Amino acid sequence: MITLLAGGREEKIDGLVVPHGTPILGWERKSHGWCRGDACIPSFRAAAAESEDGVDLMSFAGLLGRQAVADLDQGVVAIGEPAEPSLGRAPEFGPLAGLRGTKIALVFWASWCGCRYDLPAWEALHLELRGYGFSVVSVSLDRNPQDAEEWLADVTHPAVIDADGRIAELYNVINVPTVVWIDEEGRIARPQDTMTATDTFRSMNGLSSERATAALRRWVIDGDAGTTVRELRAPADDERLARLHARLAAWLLRDGRGEAAERHLSQAAALAPHDLAIRRGLMPLNGVDPFGEEYFALREELENSGVAIYRPLPDWHEGPE
């Protein structure tokens, strides 16, 4: 048996060749091809993944534009999200569908980041601006949900925990804090941006929370997003692949298979050395202090390589106070 990790779910499959007639990743075989709702892969294209024995899962994922990583020695396969065809629209998950018609600040944070101390300020902004048709939605990147839960005890805004990294993959989030603004129609109003709601760590990140929250209020009340950039930054193939290795590593660590997990952690770091959501985010599962020496060594490594820890958009992040 093989454990399949896909779409935020975990299931058991007999092998990488799936018997004919079995639905795969929500797709079903029909006479003219594989279909999911109104979308179909015609038979002549699907033939590349089909044989007399069944359908090759890895090849089929490729037809869907989804990367896959298998560790057959450990009996686990991870399949990523489809490449987003429209970077100008916000990928849906959890509470987003129910908030259409509302402006959203999608706030990515984690208990292993000092930005956890910003959650009360985000909650205050949610309460202050909800009368204008606005909501904060916070997304914790904690791989262990219990690490995030204590910080969410008093929030009223929609909050989710992205333990498998799927939402970070959908939005190409490589560090926290990262905030994405989404308009009433589900379109990107401001893409991935390093934004703070307090100045607790301004000495480290150099960012003004006063300027950021003033810009947020202007957008919510007046509709001015302060930028002409209205598409998510697309991930490179190596970044997408790194996230799958990280997903396998997290699953293996939870299952007590540290040695196998380390191999996938090393591969993820080699593919996307700048991705702190992976490299720092998995430290707690690996028994490493995310605020300790290894984290600061990682910061030094990236800074010496010219890799920015924080990636704010320009415009209101710059200039005089």
From TrEMBL:
Gene3D superfamilies associated with the record: Glutaredoxin (3.40.30.10)
PROSITE patterns assigned: THIOREDOXIN_2
Cross-referenced InterPro entries: AhpC/TSA (IPR000866), Thioredoxin-like_sf (IPR036249), Thioredoxin_domain (IPR013766), Thioredoxin_ResA/DsbE_sf (IPR050553)
A GO term for molecular function: oxidoreductase activity
Pfam family, one: AhpC-TSA
Domain Thioredoxin: 63-218
Name this protein carries in UniProt: Peroxiredoxin
